[in-house]
Amino acid sequence: MVRVSPAFRSVALFSLLLLFCSGVALFLPHLEVRTEQPLPLLRLHVVAPSDDAADQALKLKVRDAILALLDPQMAECSSMEASREKVMAALPDIQRVAEAQIRAEGYTYTVQPEIGRFFFPKKVYGTLTAPAGEYDALRVVIGSGQGANWWCVLYPPLCLSDRTGVAVTSGLPEAPLPPVAPAVDGASAPHGEGRWEVRSKVWELMTAAP
């Protein structure tokens, strides 16, 4: 039987550990990209003129007016494409109700609604976690749009007019979204899901008792 000296064993263990860490470092970025793809959502993004308290309050009033217009329409949609088409067709009405709300509050700000793809940070909506990434969205900019923004999900309809700004589930599409584990920012995957166990016969031999 071949005897392995302690010095050789130490060098071999260090080399294997270095190789293992290098492999993990190369593998993890690809794993993260694969598991953190943006979901098929249509989001609402309302941007205030400034961070002034009055402008922030106005932003929420405009949000409520837009949701009052769109919520019934989104409830009729059964696909992401259908919801996008409805919002696109409703852009003149969205601008009209937003401007009317702004005037009713005594302001003369302009308002610009548009449909496009925009970057959103990671966000949790009840049991749905939307990873950071680019999403289709209705973006409504009030005035110069220099203030803090507010967002939620128009389709599937996850933003009832909750005055706290926290999205509440109001329905799901007929075609379900890809399964997403309940999570909060920075939370790890549930135990037993998506875990890898790496074994090496060489490692076992090297760590075995002499």
Unreliable sequence segments: 31-35, 160-207
* Strand adjacency order, main sheet: 2-5-1-6
Helix content bin: 40-55%
The number of helices is: 5
Number of domains: 2
> Can you tell me the overall shape?
elongated
For the biggest sheet, the summary is: 4 strands, mixed
Radius of gyration: 25 Å
Order of helices and strands: HEHHHEEEEEH
The number of distinct β-strands equals 6
In percent, how much strand structure appears in the residues? Answer: 15-25%
Please provide a written account of the structure.
This protein is an alpha+beta fold. The protein folds into two domains: 6-35 and 189-207, no CATH class; 42-155, no CATH class. Helices cover 40% and strands 19% of the residues. The protein has five helices and six strands; from the N terminus they run αβαααβββββα. The strands form two sheets. Strands 2-5-1-6 form a four-stranded mixed sheet. A hairpin with a 2-residue loop joins β3 and β4. The longest helix is centred in the N-terminal third of the chain and has 30 residues, at 6-35. The protein starts with 5 loop residues before the first helix and ends with a helix. The model is unreliable at 31-35 and 160-207 (pLDDT under 50).
Question: Can you tag this structure with a few keywords?
Answer:
single chain, 210 residues, alpha+beta, 2 domains, four-stranded mixed beta sheet, two-stranded antiparallel ribbon, 6 strands, 19% strand
Topology:
Layout: H1 6-35, E1 42-47, H2 53-75, H3 80-89, H4 91-104, E2 111-120, E3 123-125, E4 128-130, E5 133-142, E6 149-155, H5 201-207
Parallel strand pairs: 1-5
Antiparallel strand pairs: 1-6, 2-5, 3-4
